[in-house]
C-alpha cells in the first residue's frame, strides 16, 4: 500500500516527471560500471539456470541501482533480473520497480554498443515511468507522461533541459515499414509476421533500444514472439507509450505488467510506433 500511495501522490503532484529524470540519472551513473568492465581485455561470464549469461557488470550495476532506489524510494517493491535469478520474488503491491542492469548481455559480451541499462516503475499493470540508457552510445531515453532523448556520457548526468529532444513516434509511412528485429532471437514466427507486412527495410538491433527507436521516429514496428521478462520491456515500453506508440499482446490489448502467475514472463507482443495500428494485432500468429 505504501508503494500505491506513493505512485498516486506522484501522479497527482506531477512528480512522475521527476521520477523519470531520477531514473535516467541513475542509469547514466551506472553506465560507468558497464564501461569499466568493457575496458577489460576479457569479460568473465557464467550461465544462469535459464542458460542466459551474466557478468560481473550485471551484478555490480544491479547492486548499485538497488541501493540508489532504496535510498530515493524506500519501501517500494522491486523486480530485478539478477535478484530474481537468485530466487528473490516480488512482494505484494500494485506498484513496483523493474530493473534490468544490462539488457542485451550477449551484445555486451560481444562488445556491441546495443546494450542498455533499464529502470522502470509499473503501476496498475502498466509501465508508468522508464529510463533506458545505452552507455556505449551515450544515448538516454526517459519518460513519465512525456518522453525525451538526450546525450550523456557514462558516469555523468542528464544535460540541461534545453538539450533534451522530445520524443514522438511517427505515423505508418506509406512507402512501407521499417521493422526492428532481435539480433539474438530472430525466429520463424517473426519471419512469418514480417512476410505479411509491407516492409521497406528490416534492421537487427539489440536490447530495449528497439522500443526507443520506435519512440524517436526512426522505425515503425518491433515484433517479438519469443519469451521475455517484464524487466526486459518495462522501461522501453514506458518510453514508447509516452511517445504515442503501443505494445500489444496477441489479443490486441496493451502488454500487461505484474503477471505474477506467469513468473513475470511476457508472451508474444508487437510494439508499434503508430498507435492506430491496433487492427494489426490480428496478424499475430
From TrEMBL:
Membrane topology, record value: Peripheral membrane protein
Superkingdom, natural source: Bacteria
Top enzyme class: hydrolase
Keyword match Cell membrane: yes
GO terms (BP aspect): 3'-phosphoadenosine 5'-phosphosulfate metabolic process; phosphatidylinositol phosphate biosynthetic process; sulfate assimilation
Binding site for Mg(2+) 2: 100, 103, 232
Residues given in the record as Mg(2+) 1 binding sites: 81, 100, 102-103, 232
Cofactor or coenzyme needed: Mg(2+)
The protein, known as: 3'(2'),5'-bisphosphate nucleotidase CysQ
Organism from which the protein derives: Methylocystis rosea
Organism phylogeny: Bacteria, Pseudomonadati, Pseudomonadota, Alphaproteobacteria, Hyphomicrobiales
Amino acid at each position: 500500500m505504501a508503494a500505491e500511495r506513493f505512485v498516486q501522490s506522484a501522479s497527482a503532484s506531477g512528480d512522475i516527471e521527476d521520477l523519470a529524470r531520477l531514473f535516467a540519472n541513475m542509469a547514466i551513473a551506472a553506465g560507468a560500471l558497464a564501461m569499466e568492465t568493457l575496458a577489460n581485455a576479457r569479460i568473465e561470464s557464467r550461465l544462469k539456470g535459464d542458460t542466459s549469461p551474466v557478468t560481473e557488470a550485471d551484478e555490480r550495476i544491479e547492486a548499485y541501482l538497488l541501493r540508489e532506489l532504496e535510498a530515493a524510494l524506500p519501501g517500494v517493491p522491486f523486480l530485478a533480473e539478477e535478484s530474481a535469478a537468485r530466487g528473490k520474488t516480488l512482494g505484494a503491491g500494485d506498484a513496483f520497480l523493474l530493473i534490468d542492469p544490462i539488457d542485451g548481455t550477449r551484445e555486451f559480451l560481444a562488445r556491441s554498443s546495443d546494450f542498455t541499462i533499464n529502470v522502470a516503475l509499473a503501476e496498475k499493470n502498466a509501465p508508468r515511468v522508464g529510463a533506458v540508457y545505452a552507455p556505449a552510445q551515450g544515448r538516454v531515453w526517459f519518460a513519465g507522461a512525456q518522453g525525451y532523448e538526450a546525450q550523456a556520457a557514462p558516469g555523468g548526468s542528464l544535460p540541461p533541459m534545453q538539450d533534451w529532444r522530445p520524443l514522438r513516434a511517427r505515423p505508418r509511412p506509406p512507402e512501407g515499414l521499417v521493422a526492428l528485429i532481435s539480433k539474438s532471437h530472430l525466429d520463424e514466427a517473426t519471419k512469418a509476421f514480417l512476410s505479411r507486412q509491407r516492409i521497406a527495410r528490416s534492421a537487427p538491433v539489440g536490447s530495449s533500444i528497439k522500443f526507443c527507436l520506435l519512440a524517436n521516429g526512426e522505425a515503425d514496428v518491433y515484433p517479438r514472439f519469443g519469451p521475455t521478462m517484464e524487466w526486459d520491456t518495462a522501461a522501453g515500453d514506458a518510453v514508447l507509450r509516452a511517445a504515442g506508440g503501443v505494445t500489444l499482446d496477441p489479443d490486441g490489448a496493451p502488454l500487461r505488467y505484474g503477471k505474477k502467475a506467469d513468473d513475470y514472463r511476457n508472451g508474444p507482443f508487437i510494439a508499434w510506433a503508430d498507435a492506430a495500428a491496433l487492427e494489426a494485432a490480428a496478424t499475430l500468429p
